[in-house]
Specification:
36% of the residues lie in helices and 18% in strands. It is α/β, with parallel strands linked by helices. A seven-stranded mixed sheet has the order 3-2-4-5-7-6-12, with helices on both faces. A five-stranded mixed sheet has the order 9-11-10-13-14, with helices on both faces.
Length: 326
């Protein structure tokens, strides 16, 4: 095993797949000459050249459309958005073309494409640059949605996404690119749609994904001192969702808290709550708790932003509520 940064794991995944398959290419703003806005494509222009690592203009709809069209010619593009907030400019290509072309063509045109970049908040970036869209994209049949939280998961799942014949939304975080973690030296690919039990426990299940899961680990350490054993499930893939992993854990712990960095209405947490009450209601010893951002646009003030975002204290409180302890 070696220890590398999250951005390096992303770069390794893309580079390895481009060496393996010459139909894979990367397109996006600043991905080539600048080595990526977050240096996730560092060195790739030098290795693969300007025909396979392509600097696009500030025209998300345009380069997303070019990439989707190129899949019909046998290519497997990776589209990098500087932030998924900017994907809204090109969302018609994602929702109405990439996600639907296989069905609309009667299976004649698969769409092997990856749309990747950072999601959710990243500090004082304001309301229009701090949004999480996992539940938006997961609401679209035809799309797969991946949100890794570690370098290991990022590399293995990105390689799987690039090889997948369906369009994949691969969501990262500006605040995780510098995170370090162990990654195998050799080839490995992780299956899409399989959650990971990151911490085993017996008293309560916490389900989360992406960078906000860090708050769950902080909370679990605090709760352990109070004698509460927490099991943490990292979804890794929002769609398809590993319902079995969640249900198996809930049947063991009988309590569930869901932590998500997104608005509460129609959230991923809402879907998980429905699935658990539908399939494991009799196992629940307490109502399900969900923790999300406040139901407002993200504030710019750091004081307000801290209140807007979920944190470990919120998780501790929610766990104690379902445990009926103070």
């Amino acid at each position: 095993m070696k220890t590398i940064q999250f951005r390096e794991a992303v770069c390794e995944a893309m580079s390895e797949e481009m060496r393996r398959d010459e139909t894979v290419y990367l397109i996006g703003e600043e991905v080539a000459e600048y080595n990526g806005a977050y240096k996730a494509s560092k060195g790739m222009l030098d290795e693969f050249g300007e025909k396979r690592v392509i600097d696009a203009p500030i025209a998300e709809l345009g380069f997303a459309g070019i990439a989707v069209g190129s899949t019909m010619g046998g290519n497997r593009p990776i589209v990098e958005y500087m932030t998924f907030n900017f994907s809204l400019v090109g969302i018609d290509q994602i929702i109405n073309n990439a996600a639907k072309i296989r069905q609309m063509s009667g299976g004649q045109f698969p769409c092997p494409i990856v749309f990747r970049g950072p999601t959710a908040s990243a500090g004082q970036l304001g309301a229009t640059h701090s949004q999480a869209f996992e539940n938006w994209f997961a609401n679209t049949p035809g799309l797969k949605v991946i949100v890794p939280s570690t370098p290991y998961d990022a590399k293995g799942l990105l390689k799987a996404a690039i090889r997948d014949d369906d369009p994949v939304i691969f969501m990262e975080s500006e605040q995780m690119y510098g995170d370090k973690g162990e990654v195998p030296e050799g080839e490995y690919v992780l299956p899409i749609g399989v959650a990971d039990v990151k911490r085993k426990g017996n008293d309560v299940t916490i389900v989360s994904f992406g960078k906000i899961i860090k708050e769950a680990f902080k909370a679990a350490d605090v709760l352990e001192k109070d004698g509460i054993s927490v099991e943490i499930i990292d979804l890794r893939t929002v769609r398809p969702m590993d319902h079995d992993a969640i249900l198996e854990s809930v049947k063991k712990t009988n309590r569930l808290v869901i932590l998500e960095e997104a608005w509460p209405f129609a959230s991923v947490a809402s879907e998980i709550t429905y699935q658990v009450q539908e399939n494991a209601f009799d196992y629940l010893d307490a109502p399900i708790k969900r923790i999300t951002t406040a139901d407002t646009p993200a504030p710019y003030s750091p004081v307000l932003l801290a209140e807007w975002l979920p944190n470990a204290n919120d998780v501790v409180k929610a766990v104690k509520d379902v445990m009926y302890v103070k």
